[in-house]
Amino acid sequence: MSEYVNVVEIFGENVFNDAVMQARLPKKVYKELKQTMEEGKELTLEIADVVAHEMKEWAIEKGATHYSHWFQPLTGVTAEKHDAFITAPKPDGKVLMSFSGKELIKGEPDASSFPSGGLRATFEARGYTAWDCTSPAFVRQDAAGATLCIPTAFCSYTGEALDQKTPLLRSMEAINKEALRLIRLFGNTTSKKVTPSVGAEQEYFLVDAAKFMKRKDLIYTGRTLFGAMPPKGQELDDHYFGTIRQKIAGYMKDVNEELWKLGVSSKTQHNEVAPAQHELAPIYAPANIAVDHNQIIMQTLKRVARKHGLKCILHEKPFAGVNGSGKHDNWSLVTDDGINLLEPGKTPHENVQFLLVLSCILKAVDRHADLLRESASDVGNDHRLGANEAPPAIISIYLGEQLEDVVEQLVSTGTADHSLKGGRLMTGVRTLPDLAKDATDRNRTSPFAFTGNKFEFRMVGSQDSVAAPNIVLNTIVAEAFQEACKILENAEDFDVAVHDLIKTNCAEHQRIIFNGNGYSDAWVEEAKRRGLPNIRSMVDAIPALTTEKSIAMFEHFHVFTKTELESRTEVKYETYAKEINVEARAMIDIAAKQIIPAVIKYAKHLADAIISIQTIPGMDVSVETELLKETTKLLRESQTALKTLQEKTEAASLIENNERQARYYHDEVNAAMEALRKPIDQLEMIVDKEMWPMPSYGDLMFEV
Ligand code: ADP
Ligand code: MG
Questions:
Q1: Domain housing 35
Q2: Is 332 close to ligand 1, i.e. is its CB under 6 Å away?
Q3: Is 567 a domain residue?
C-alpha cells in the first residue's frame, strides 16, 4: 500500500495564502494588503517591500532559489522568466538573498517574441508584468529546484494588454459593478462584491510515453495526423466511468497531491468516454484564480505523466474516430457574503431577482452568441465544434423543463404563477432510499446549459485557456445588467417595471432557448430558421471580435480597446496559419520519410514473395498479387496527394495578409491534408504491422 497522505495538512502548503500572510506579515501591512486585494486600493512601495521580504523568507524555507513572474501571453500557455534571489557578491565574495517590493510588483521581461498582433514593433519590445495580488503566489517544485511563482498581468509599454489576465480582471470589475447595482435594486445593501465563480472541468488523454515518442505527429502537433481505427473504439461505453486502472490511479494520486500542495482543490476524477481519456475537476473559485489554477492543472498533468512513463495529451482531437477533449466552464455569480445570483430556489417563478438575472443572461448570450463562439475557438477545437462531434457550433441555452416552463408562462401570459416540481425518484426497490429528484434533467448536447445554480459552457477546447470565455461572459452579462439597471433605477413603479422587463427580455430572446437534441440535423435547420449563427470554424469565428457591437461593448466596459481587439484578431489568424502549417509540414515529413519508404519495402516484400512462390510449380499467387496491386495503387494516390500538399503548403506560406493566409490554410491546406491521410490510413490496414513505422491507434489507446 502507498503511504498515507494527510490532505488537510498538505493542502496549500506551497501557497502564500491568507493564513501564511496573517501569520507572517505585521498586522498593519496585512490589513493594507487585504484592502488592495478586496477593494482595489493602491499598493504603496513601502507595503510591497515588507510583503516581498516575507514572501522571499517563506519561499526560501520551501527551498526556493528563484522567483518568477508567471504570466499568460496570447500563446495559450503560461510564460515565466526565472531570477535568482541573489544580490551582487559583497567584497568578501559572499552573496545575500534579496527580493524587493519593486521586483514583486513589476517585472520587465524582454517580450519581443510574444504575439502582439502588431501592437508593438520589435524595436519597442518593452513589456511589463504586474503582480495580480488577488491570485496567490506559490512555490513550484520541479527539476529546476523550487521557484516562487508570482501570478502577473502582462502589458505593453503603452498599457495595452498583451495577455489573457488583464482583460479578465477588467471584465471582473465590470460585472462586479453592474451586478452590485442590480442587487441594490432588490434591497441588498450588505454585499460588497460580486465575483464570477468558475469551475473548469479538464479532459485529457494518457498514452505510453515510449509509444508517444515513436510518433512524430504527436511530438510536433499534439495529435495524430494519420491512423486507422482499431477494431474497437468507444462503442461499448466500457471505459466511461469505468474502474480506474492501477497505473492510472497511481498517476492521479500524484497529480492530486501536487495540486493540493499548490492550493488547487482537485476534487473529481474519472474515466471519460474515449479509451485512454480521463477528466479532472477542481472545486470552483473566483474567475481569475480558476483560470490560473486551470493552467497549473494542465502543467501538472503533463509534468507528473513523465514520472509514470506516460504522456498526457491535452489536444482537442488527438485521435480521429473517438471523442475529443473539451473543458466545461461552469460559471455563476456569487457575492462576498455567499449569495449565488443564479440560485433559483424551490419556486423560481416567485424569485424575481433570479428571473431578472436569468432573462439578462438570455439576452446577453443571444445578442453575443458570435463572441461566445469565438471565445471557444482554437485550432484544435475546429475538429469538435461543427465537425461530427459534440457540442454543436450553434450557441443555444438549455434551461431544463422547470425554467423553460416558467419562461413560457411569462412570455405567453405575462405572469408565471407556478414552478414544476421535482418530486420523488422511485427506484422500485425497497432497500434503496427514495431520492428527491431535481426538477430538471440534464442535457448533454447543449453548449450552454443551466445546471441547477450555474451555467455550464461546454464549448471550450481542452488545451485552451478558460480566460477568453469568461471575459466574454462577464462582459456581455455586465452589459445586459447595466441596461436593466438603467431602466429600473428610473422606474416609477419598480414592481411593474421589473415584471415588464423580464417579460420583454424573455420574449425577445426566447429563440436562444433549446432543450432538444443539439446533435441532430433537425436542430441545424431549426436554428437557421430562428436566425441563430452557425459558425463552423475558428477562421469564420474570428471576425466576431471586431464587429461594431463587439468594439462598442468592450470599449464601454474598458475590457478591450479597439486596438487590443484588432491585435487579438491578428494574433488569432497568425496562430491558425502557423499551427496548420506545422501540421502540414509534419504530415509531409512523416509521409515522405517514414510511411512511403515503409510501403515500398512492403511492396518489395510482396513482389519477392510472388517471384519466389511462382518458382514452385502449381502455386497460387493471386492473393499476393491482389495485395501488391492494391498497395501500389494506394501508394500512387499517396504520392500524388503528398505532392499536392507540398504545393499548397508552399503557396500558403507566401500569402502575406494574415486573414487571407488563415483562410487559405483552412480551405486549401486542410483539404490537402485530408486527401493525403485517406490512402495512408487504408495502407495501414494492409501493410504488415511489423513494417508500419509507428505505433497504431490500438497500441496507443488500449495498451497504456
Ligand atoms: P456537473 O456534474 O454538473 O458537471 P459538478 O458538481 O461535478 O457538476 O461540478 C462541475 C464543476 O462545476 C466543478 O468544478 C464545480 O466546482 C463547479 N461548480 C459547482 N457549483 C458551481 C457554481 N455555483 N459556480 C461555478 N462553478 C460551480
Ligand atoms: Mg459538468
A1: 11-163
A2: yes
A3: no
Answer yes or no: do 157 and 190 share one domain: no
Q: Looking at this predicted complex, what is its ipTM?
A: 0.96
Please work out whether the CB of residue 197 comes within 6 Å of at least one atom of ligand 1: yes
534 and 413 share one domain: yes
Of 134, 163, 192, which marks where a domain is finished? 163
- The residue to mutate among 454, 455, 460, having the most atoms of ligand 1 within 8 angstroms of its beta carbon, is 454
H or E segment and range at residue 562: helix 562-590
3-class DSSP state of 204: strand
What's 285-321 look like in SS3?
EEHHHHHHHHHHHHHHHHHHHHHCCEEEECCCCCCCC
CATH number of the domain encompassing residue 665: 1.20.120.1560
For 603-645, write each residue's pLDDT tens digit: 999 999 999 999 999 999 999 999 999 999 999 999 999 999 9
Whether 200 and 338 map to the same domain: the answer is yes
Angle between helices 562-590 and 548-556 (to 10 degrees): 120
Ligand 1 probe mutation, 265, 284, 354, 455, most atoms within 8 A of CB: 284
Atom number in ligand 1 closest to CA 332: 24
Are residues 102 and 181 located together in one domain of the fold?
Answer: no
CA of 304 to the centre of ligand 1 (A): 25
Q: How far is the CA of 550 from the centre of ligand 1 (A)?
A: 29
Cell numbers of 643, please?
A: 505532392
Ligand 1 close to Cβ of residue 442 (< 6 A): no
Percent of the chain with pLDDT over 70: 95
Q: Do 36 and 182 belong together in one domain? A: no
Q: Say how many Å lie between the CA of residue 148 and the centre of ligand 2.
A: 33
Contacts of residue 322, defined as CB under 8 A and 6 or more positions apart, other chains included, come to 233, 234, 273, 274, 275, 277, 701
- 199 CA distance to ligand 1 centroid (A)? 6
Ligand lying nearest the CA atom of residue 326: 2
Ligand 1 lined by 344 (C-beta under 6 Å):
no
What residue owns the CA closest to ligand 1's atom 11? Answer: 199
pLDDT tens-place string over residues 354-402: 999 999 999 999 999 999 999 999 999 999 997 767 678 999 999 988 8
Statement to judge: residues 196 and 281 lie in one domain: yes
* 191 Cα–ligand 2 center, Å: 29
Lowest mean pLDDT among 222-236, 357-371, 518-532, 589-603: 222-236
- 331 CA closest ligand 1 atom index: 25
Do both 696 and 651 map to the same domain?
yes
State the pLDDT confidence band at 428, using cuts at 50, 70 and 90: low
| Alpha-carbon gap, residue 182 to 353, rounded angstroms | 9
From the CA of 268, give the closest atom in ligand 1: 7
Nearest-10 Cα torsion for 36, 40, 41, 47: 30
Residue 557 CB less than 6 A away from ligand 1: no
pLDDT at 672: 98
pLDDT of residue 382: 95
Question: Is the pLDDT assigned to residue 650 strictly greater than 70?
Answer: yes
Considering 163, 194, 229, which residue would you say is the last residue of a domain?
A: 163
Number of domains in the chain: 3
Residue 695 covered by a domain: yes
571, part of any domain = no
Output the CA 467–ligand 1 centroid distance in Å.
Answer: 17
Helix (H) or strand (E) holding 139: strand 138-142
SS (HEC) of 89-129: CCCCCCCCECCCHHHHHEECCECCCCCCCCCCCHHHCEEEE
Is 1 among the domain residues?
no
Ligand 1 atom with minimal separation from the 340 CA: 23
Higher pLDDT, 655 or 43: 655
Q: How far apart are CA 530 and CA 516, in angstroms?
A: 14
All residues with CB under 5 Å from ion ligand 2: 328
Q: Read off the CATH number of the domain in which 451 is found.
A: 3.30.590.10
Instruction: Say yes or no: 205 and 152 in one domain.
Output: no
CATH no. for residue 108?
A: 3.10.20.70
pLDDT tens digits for 336-356? 999 999 999 888 878 999 999
Q: Is residue 126 very low, low, confident or very high in pLDDT (cuts 50, 70, 90)?
A: confident
User: What's the CA-to-centroid distance between 451 and ligand 1, angstroms?
Assistant: 8
**Ligand 1 pocket, 440 CB below 6 A?**
no
Euclidean distance between CA atoms 395 and 461, whole angstroms:
15
pLDDT tens column, 512-529: 999 888 888 899 999 999
